[in-house]
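Example record

One chain of 142 residues, shown exactly as stored in the release files.
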Amino acid sequence: MSREGMVEEIVKTYRIVYERDETAWWVASVRGLRGCHTQGRTVDEARRRIREAMELFVPRARSARTVDEVRLPSGAAKAIRAYATLRQKADQEDRRAAMAARRAVRLLRGGRLKMSARDAARLLGLSHQRVHQLAQREAEDR
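Predicted structure tokens for this chain:
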């Protein structure tokens, strides 16, 4: 095999499609490898088994790059997309809340107030340990 052929074989990516059958098993098949399919009770089991099946078709199948495509009914796929969108928004809000907490700790503990960590914690609804962490982080950021 030529060097270019070996490089192409090494970097080839295989797309594996997972679909639920009527008996609730996951059927895994590799697109582009006719006859390369298997099944498992879980996606993980099907994923392990499809690697074994690929060994019959592809040299060094265990190290081949793969991309999983789990096919779901449209309602389930829509629910997953909605969750991912909301999770991303929640993560953004968590970051904003953390910044606001650091700012509040700085104002309560510093300046004219010189509030104790326990009093600041009580007002913010946090533990005094968390207030100490936020104050320390604020000091490190300066």
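Notes: The chain has a mean pLDDT of 90.
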